[in-house]
Amino acid sequence: METKKELSYFRLKLENYLSEHFPELLGDKPFITARSDEALSTYCDAVAQGFSHPEAESMASEVLHRGLHFSKYDTLVSVLENEFEKELPSPLPERLTPMLLKNKAVQSVFDKYELTDDFGATPEYEKLYTELTGTIVLLIEVNGLPTIGGENMT
Predict the structure, then answer these.
(1) Which of 59, 65, 68, 99 has a 20 to 30 Å separation from 27 between CA atoms?
(2) InterPro entries under this entry (predicted)?
(3) What is the pTM of this model?
(4) Element containing residue 19 per DSSP (H, E)
(5) HEC assignment per residue over 51-103
């Protein structure tokens, strides 16, 4: 029973994080299950090795969030909020971003870069940001400003 409770904790923690930063991964149940199980194992192993519960929690969190520190979603929301504030007032950036993530032109911009966990702290990030801004300007010019549902952005 205790294990199931901890497993649920790590699953919920991961699902909450994904919903805020990687909504496109929320439907990937095998990934969520595997990552949650790995975090639980890390936690249990750390406790068994004598680490405190907070230390074990920290180690498990590292496993849970591995490869999930740089978010395409957060980057697009940031571009929309910073560069298109007048055209796209809140909550439009959060509503449009999932659709932009599916857009081929937007994906091709992301595909040019090796998006590691620390990518946001590299000089390449500014290039990505600028390219995304230009791509979104072109999408708006071609499609007009998006509606609330954003259907004409994809």
Answers:
(1) 59
(2) DUF1896 (IPR015082), PG0816-like_sf (IPR036297)
(3) 0.77
(4) helix 2-21
(5) CCHHHHHHHHHHHHHCCCCCCHHHHHHHHHHHHCCCCCCCCHHHHHHHHHHHC
Q: How far apart are the first and last CA of the chain?
A: 46
Burial of 13 (0-12, 13-18, 19+ CB in 10 A): middle
Question: Can you list the domains of the chain with their CATH numbers?
Answer: 1-65 (1.10.8.330), 72-143 (1.10.8.340)
Contacts 24+ apart (CB under 8 A), 12-20: 13/61, 13/64, 14/39, 14/64, 17/64, 17/65, 17/68, 18/68
Q: How far apart are CA 85 and CA 88, in angstroms?
A: 5
Output the six-digit token pair for 22.
């990687």
